Amino acid sequence: MPELPEVETIRSQVAAHLAGSKLAAIEVKRASIIKGEITSLKGKTIKVVRRYGKLMVVDFSKGLSLAIHLKMTGRLTLLKDEMELPIHTHVIFTFKQGDETKRVAFSDTRRFGFLHVLPTHEVGELKFIRSLGKEPFKDLDLAAFVEMVRGATRPIKNLLLDQSRIAGIGNIYACEALWLAGIKPTKRADKLTKKEVKLLFGAVESVLKEGIARGGASDNDYRNLLGEKGEYQNFFKVYGRTGKPCLHCETPLKRIVQAGRSTFYCPTCQS
DNA sequence: AGTATAACCTGTCTGC
DNA sequence: TGCAGACAGGTTATAC
To answer: Which residue is the nearest neighbor of B2, CA to C1'?
Structure first.
């Protein structure tokens, strides 16, 4: 479920609530979602929480790290006292900071997500990270974006979703950015005009920024570390709005399928 | 280099 | 009420 803004929201919350906390206990209910030796994290303290595209990396003391991918339905939940465990909880972490005890559950209905324990110095060697493309707001600048678009013959929507080119964009933000830029999702990437490329670059940054500002999009499953929904779903212009009027021109929005994923767009504004 | 499809899983919704 | 089918924020392997 979570795309860059959702993962970034959780990343900053994990940093705010758990940095400096010591992992006192780990309860594993389903080992198959774990790679590496999770018990080695016991007694270690959280130092830094990073994000690579949609992957979160928690750096612990003693040179150990925990990579977390939430995929579609993964959640990290800071458990309140007496709180029932989320459904499909696979791992429960108990942290101590001074007198305080904090419990965090990793749950994942569809079990696509994973936890991966590895030495911090090996994080950069992860195949997932090595194959990631440029990161919005970091090394993805307009020049890099122009270059990328110029060299691609596939539809622009498919390019936006390709994590090996741009890290972090998923189906929601791809659709929203294309609507904002007024570009048809099926248009061949290298056929975009200079003006369109520039508009799209701005639109991508704009929707990601707004997604982060609104705490992510909870169209369905997504919840932040505190179990709260995001707000960005209330501001979708096209995603999931098949048949509803375009907010610009009132044309009924269309749904098509590209690369096996739903694309929502306005046939009038995006041509 | 690109596409398309299936696969990994469970849950929810729609239509008959 | 039941049941089949479509669909869901992601990634990857495999076959064209």
So the answer is: A154
Phi, psi angles (nearest 5°) of residue A194 = -55, -40
Residue whose pair of structure tokens reads 């458990």 in the numeric block: A79
Would you say the C-beta of A259 is within 7 Å of strand B?
yes
Residues 6+ apart with CB under 8 A from A65: A57, A58, A59, A117, A118, A119, A120, A123
Amino acid A15 reads A
In chain A, which residues from 85 to 104 place their CB closer than 7 Å to nucleic acid strand B? 87-88
DSSP A135-184: PBTTTB-HHHHHHHHHT--SBHHHHHH-TTTBSS--HHHHHHHHHHHT--
C-alpha–C-alpha distance, residues A116 and A123, integer Å: 10
Q: Which amino acid is at A109?
A: T
For chain A, the maximum distance between any two Cα atoms, rounded to a whole number of angstroms, is: 60
Looking at the DSSP bridge assignments, the partners of residue A78 are A104
From the CB of residue A31, how many other CB atoms can be counted at a distance below 10 Å?
A: 9
Give the up-direction half-sphere exposure of residue A147: CA atoms within 13 A in the CB hemisphere. Answer: 10
> pLDDT tens per residue, chain A (271 residues)?
699 999 999 999 999 999 999 999 999 999 999 999 999 999 999 999 999 999 999 999 999 999 999 999 999 999 998 788 999 999 999 999 999 999 999 999 999 999 999 999 999 999 999 999 999 999 999 999 999 999 899 999 999 999 999 999 999 999 999 999 999 999 999 999 999 999 999 999 999 999 999 999 998 899 999 999 999 999 999 999 999 999 999 999 999 999 999 999 999 999 8
